[in-house]
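If your schedule permits, I should be very grateful for your opinion on a structural question. The matter concerns a single protein, recorded as an amino acid sequence and a row of backbone structure tokens. Could you please explain, in whatever detail you think fit, how the structure tokens follow from the sequence? I set the record out below, with my sincere thanks for your time.

——
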Amino acid sequence: MDVLVLIDKLDDTIHNSKPVPLTDQVRVDKEEVYDVLDQMRATIPEEIKQARWIVKERQEMLAEAKREAERIVKEARDEQNHLIGEEEVVKQAERQAEDIVEDARAREREIRLGAEDYADDILNTLEVNLQKFIAAVQRGRDRLQGREGEEAEASSSSSGSSSIGPVDAR
């Protein structure tokens, strides 16, 4: 499940909770909140695992591009050595080898830059999702902490309140 969906679910749970009469506090189903938090804990490591996989893929793509460039350079040098003979043939081979090396370097740069852009996009998306998650959790904690003091006053003035109480924000 997506972290943002879980954040929305937690927000809805708090928003749709029954109000405590004569206060701006709400009664929250502790098990439901803990269930959503457990799902978040399970989801975030998966997204981090995906980001690590993307970084690994990027490194593999860069290594493959480098191997390809080295292979092309070696082929160009082999071709160049094979064509040594007459001066014109040698000049032509040198030009071709330079073109091949230049093409290989350009291709390696293009692949490397593309892989870096892709990894950066994925990591940026993960960063945005994590920032939203942190903001939602902080809003929930702020709501709960703001009501915690008021609930203690209401509990001491009334006898035997049946509310679940504040959620431990750990």
About this structure: Helices lie at 3-15, 30-82, 87-157.
